[in-house]
Fold this sequence. Notes:
Elements: H1 12-49, H2 53-99, H3 101-114, H4 119-143, H5 153-176, H6 183-206, H7 210-238
Subcellular location: Endomembrane system
Pfam family, one: VIT1
Protein name: VIT family protein
Amino acid sequence: MNTIPDVSSHDEPHSDASGSKLNWLRAAVLGANDGIVSVAALVVGVAGASDSAGFILTAGIAGLLAGALSMAVGEYVSVSTQRDTERALLAKEKWELENEAEAELEELTALYQAKGLSRATAEEVAKELTAHDAFAAHVDIELHIDPNNLTNPWQAALASAASFFLGAVIPLIAIVLPPPSLRIPITFIAVLFALMITGSLSAQAGGANKTRATIRVVAGGALAMAITFAIGKLFGVVGI
C-alpha cells in the first residue's frame, strides 16, 4: 500500500532538528547583541562622566560579568522549567498508553486523519506504529518531543553566558584601548558595526528582512549609547 510513506511524521524529526538549530543560533545572536548593547551603554555612560580608564574598565567588567551571570541563570531557570514540563508530559503519555490504550489508539488515528489521511489509512498507520512503538509514535506526532534529546539547562546556560560575554568584550576593548579623545567615537563605530553583523545574522536565522532588522538593532544600540552618554555627561558636570 503506497499511501503510508506519505505520512509526514518521517520528515518531522529533520524539521524539528533544523528548527532547534535555528533557535540556538537565534538565541546566541540575541545574547551577543544584549552583551554588546548593555555593556556599550554602560561604559559610554561612565566615559561621559569620567576620563578615568580605571573607572571605565571596572564598570565594564562588572557589567560584563553581571550580565553574563544573569543571562546564564535566567536561561537555566527557563530551560529547566521547559525540561520539567517535557518530562511531565512524557510521564502522562506513558500512563495514558498503559491505562487507556484504546482511547490513545483512537487519538493517534484522529491525529493522522487531521494530517489529511483517510480514516481507513489513518487507522492502519496508527495500528502499525502502535505495534512497533506506541510511546514513540505518540510523543512524536502529539507532543513533538524527542525523549532521547530533551533540552539541557546547563548547555543553554553556558551558551547564553558565552554569547553575552563575547558580545560584551567588543565595546569593552573599544573603549579601553584608544586614547581618551578617541574613546567615544571608536566605541560608537565598533559597536554599530558589530550590531550590523548581529542584526543581519538574527534576521537570517529568523527569515526576516535583513535591512529592516539591522536598522532596528543599530538604531536601538545608537540610542542607548547616546542616552547613557548624555546622562554621564550631565552627572559628570553636576559632580554627583
